[in-house]
Design goal:
The structure holds 2 protein chains of 2 kinds. Chain A is mainly alpha-helical. Chain A has 16 helices and 5 strands. Chain A has a 3-stranded antiparallel sheet. A two-stranded antiparallel ribbon of chain A has the order 4-5. By secondary structure, chain B is an alpha+beta fold. Chain B is 32% helix and 9% strand. Chain B contains 10 helices and 6 strands; from the N terminus they run αααββααβαββααβαα. Classes of the chains: A mainly alpha, B alpha+beta. Chains A and B meet through β1, β2, α2, α3 and α9 of A and α1, α2, α3 and α5 of B.
């Protein structure tokens, strides 16, 4: 099964479990805390907020927080791609401009792309034909692909690496360990400590997504109209469609997840350099341009931000990317202006 | 932290300031009155500090008296649990969980604390003699007197209900079964003749502070 399909199914199961739990009064809760009686997951940011707001540490919340840190170490930032309803929500409601070319829409908000939509498409097509071809002709197909992605004629990485298109040293902004999300997180925690209640919970788009469902439920089932039905979606709209790069720049929950994922080394995408078109000297940067997190799977830099979404694996025109349980550490990105060493 | 560039600092700073503004606004601009909370949630500061609005307390309530507060209760209180005795009453989960309230058992963050129905209260029942049927047309109504699980409503010499506030723990049974509204729908009000009202002081403080009034009936 494709990873993106598995993700969709997981998310729908979560939504069904939440709505079903409300419907049958199971008390299972929402993503803010989901579980059965005292055995339940808690939103890690929510747990930290309650510690600061009440100036006491509730043991059960602390235990769950420690367990979640362990989950972060093993699985990384999986929450963002597998459980969080925000990215699918944004995609669902994003207005697609029919006059724009297909590729441009897919790439909107991704200034890191070098490859035009057209060539992504065509390379994908030929990748498909490569798949259907006999295994023996695979290398031929890869060569054909590479030629389509315009390998400069002079390029011979062994002789003159500088002549070859480099790895993505300049096209992607390198992910730093700390960025604006962490500043927002700091603000959320300071505000929580000052005013004595979990401030971010009030505007959290994850919480408000389910709160909107609950508000609708109360309206239909109990005839309880509330301004919440307008205000909650409005807050989500402002966060997702006015601020646009919510996940990337503002989400303090993502900041917590990224901090917990710093030690993560498992399930990282691995590039098979014998198949990778870029490593063969092509200009392909599909994996970088499709990555929601702006990462380059060729390098380990910022890889703790990887949400294990599997898109790079699925979009790679040469099927060069796999997501194994453990892959030896990828190389660091070379300093700017120098080409990537092709191995 | 040296790799935080200026641009990310501006975006992050704006977000951080916005969250400070949200905190202050919610706390001071849209505060609201004391609310009727599930058992163990009477310390308003603890409840507000610890509640992460996860919806687990009200969805588990077997008698459906715990409901999520909405925007009409203020931004700060919205999505926190409150009690609605028109929907149900609180039996402290005697039937469902041996007297250990499930809302508290479910609370993952300690927003709901321990609760002793014999010494603490959710609030106190207050009788409105204007609305009470026993003080008006239907002299025979004894629903709350007979129904109160804690014998906190006694009949006066005319058989009319009087709340014994020393015994009342605010379980809401009286409000739940009070039929006054059924017979007075023309008034347009949804208020019933007996209503549990939240109290800013604890039950012990109330009983010690008002030894005479406590016997009198009204909180």
């Amino acid at each position: 099964m494709k990873i993106t399909t598995a993700r969709k199914i997981t998310l729908w199961l979560v939504v069904l479990a939440v709505v079903g739990g409300i419907a049958v009064s199971a008390g299972t809760g929402t993503l803010s805390s989901f579980g059965w009686e005292s055995i339940a997951a808690i939103c890690p940011l929510g747990a930290i907020e309650t510690f600061l707001a009440s100036k006491t540490i509730f043991p059960r919340a602390l235990i769950v927080l420690v367990i979640l840190i362990g989950v972060g170490v093993v699985l990384g930032k999986v929450f963002c791609a597998w459980l969080c309803p925000v990215p699918p929500l944004r995609k669902f409601f994003t207005f697609k401009n029919p006059f724009k070319k297909e590729g441009e829409n897919a790439e909107s908000g991704n200034k890191s792309s070098r490859l035009s939509g057209e060539s992504v498409k065509s390379s994908k097509l030929s990748a498909k034909s490569a798949k259907s071809a006999k295994p023996s002709s695979e290398s031929k197909a890869t060569a054909a692909l590479a030629s389509e992605i315009k390998i400069p004629e002079s390029c011979d990485s062994a002789k003159d690496p500088a002549a070859c298109p480099s790895g993505c040293t300049s096209c992607a902004e390198k992910r730093k360990k700390f960025d604006s999300r962490h500043v927002v997180l700091g603000g959320a925690l300071v505000s929580t400590a000052i005013f004595g209640f979990p401030v971010f919970c009030i505007v959290c788009p994850v919480g408000l997504t389910f709160a909107s469902i609950v508000a609708l439920w109360r309206l239909v089932g109990f005839n309880e109209p509330s301004w919440a039905l307008l205000i909650f979606p409005l807050i989500i709209i402002v966060e997702l469609f006015v601020l646009k790069k919510w996940c990337f720049k503002f989400c303090p929950l993502g900041a917590v997840m990224s901090l917990m994922s710093i030690p993560n080394r498992l399930f990282r995408p691995r590039v098979d350099s014998s198949k990778c078109l870029r490593e063969q000297g092509g200009e392909c940067t599909v994996c970088v341009s499709v990555c929601e997190e702006g990462l380059d799977p060729h390098f380990s830099d910022g890889m703790h931000e990887c949400t294990k979404c599997g898109v790079c694996k699925e979009e790679c025109p040469a099927q060069a990317i796999s997501i194994p349980l453990y892959a030896p550490a990828a190389k660091h990105a070379p300093p700017k202006d120098k080409p990537a060493p092709s191995t | 932290m040296d790799d935080v560039t200026r641009r990310t600092f501006i975006a992050g700073g704006a977000g951080a300031v916005a969250l400070l503004a949200v905190g202050g606004t919610a706390k001071y601009a849209f505060g609201s009155d004391q609310m009727l909370r599930p058992p163990g949630g009477q310390n308003e500061d603890t409840l507000i500090a610890n509640c992460i609005k996860c919806d687990r307390c009200w969805t588990v309530c077997p008698l459906k008296c715990v409901v999520p507060a909405n925007m009409n209760d203020g931004l700060l209180n919205s999505r926190t649990p409150k009690l609605d005795f028109h929907k149900g009453y609180c039996d402290f989960c005697v039937d469902a969980n041996d007297g250990k309230p499930l809302c508290r058992a479910n609370c993952p963050t300690g927003a709901l604390g321990s609760f002793d129905p014999d010494t603490e209260w959710i609030g106190a029942a207050v009788l409105d003699t204007e609305l009470c049927l026993a003080y008006g047309v239907a002299r025979s109504c004894m629903r709350c007197i007979e129904g109160c699980p804690f014998d906190a409503i006694v009949a006066d010499e005319y058989g009319r209900p009087v709340v014994d506030t020393e015994k009342c723990n605010g379980c809401g049974y009286c409000e739940f079964i009070c039929p006054s509204n059924t017979y007075r729908t023309y008034s347009g009000s949804t208020k019933r003749a007996i209503v549990v009202e939240p109290s800013e002081i604890s039950r012990t403080e109330f009983v010690e502070g008002n030894p005479i009034e406590a016997k009198g009936g009204q909180a």
